[in-house]
Design goal:
By secondary structure, the chain is of the alpha/beta class. The protein has ten helices and six strands; from the N terminus they run E-H-H-H-H-H-E-H-E-H-H-E-H-E-E-H. It has a six-stranded parallel sheet with strand order 3-2-1-4-5-6, with helices on both faces. The two termini are about 25 Å apart.
Length: about 230
């Protein structure tokens, strides 16, 4: 018998919140302001940013800076500042139907936690902009958990904070290979990739299901007898 899901852990940018290239724009501004990517060709640097979408930004910048942690910290601060600037300039929108889907999951008795590779200041700015503070049970950044993706810490911390009965009662969904890996590494009972963000189907192939967007998650859980109450959106 399948273990019913008690907790859904959802990524933010690209999964529940539209990205539209904001991460890459913020990276470019941070690189210009700090020179963090000057040791490698620009195309190589931006490709690394794309491949590591979803991971902790300090980890990404540490790699780009050749292991210089101080430089990575400056670049991360510049990135977070640039991201906030772009959000203020362009606004931010949910993935169509994301809020309704989260509401449906919670109405079905599940806890919902948002996770991100962003620092808390950026995470909270996005949640503020969308008015989502009362929509979810918790939002976590790597600093809240220990390590960023693909380590299991964010999912494990969410499970501990929400007091789930077992990791098999946790579902994870995200738009990057790192999201899928962190769910797998945490031993989540169901891991979904979504095609609304950074990575395409091939990169998400190790997920239990690849969905067009988070809106399909309730039906995916119901089809597998993991959601006892149908959560129609």
């Amino acid at each position: 018998m399948n273990t019913p899901i008690e907790l859904v852990v959802l990524d933010m940018a690209g999964t529940t919140i539209t990205d539209d290239g904001i991460v890459e724009q913020a990276f470019q501004r941070a690189a210009e302001r700090t020179g963090i990517a000057e040791r490698m060709p620009w195309d190589e640097a931006i490709d690394y940013v794309r491949v590591t979408m979803g991971q902790s930004k300090i980890d990404v910048f540490t790699h780009l800076g050749g292991g210089d942690v101080a430089a990575a910290e400056r670049a991360t601060a510049a990135f977070e500042g640039a991201y906030a600037e772009i959000v203020a300039e362009q606004g931010v929108e949910e993935i169509p139907g994301a809020a309704a889907t989260i509401t449906a999951l919670r109405d079905a008795g599940l806890k919902v936690v948002l996770t991100t590779g962003f620092a808390p200041v950026t995470r909270d700015a996005l949640i503020d902009a969308l008015g989502w503070h009362d929509l979810v049970d918790l939002a976590l950044s790597p600093v809240d958990a220990g390590r960023g993706r693909p380590a299991p810490d964010l999912v494990l911390t969410a499970a501990l904070r929400m007091q789930v009965s077992a990791m098999s009662a946790v579902a994870v969904a995200g738009d990057t290979a790192s999201d899928v890996a962190t769910g797998r590494n945490a031993g989540a009972g169901f891991v979904a990739g979504v095609l609304s963000g950074a990575h395409e189907r091939d990169a998400l192939a190790s997920a239990d299901a690849v969905l067009n967007s988070v809106v399909e998650l309730p039906d995916a859980l119901t089809a597998r007898d993991l959601l006892r109450c149908a959560a129609a959106v």
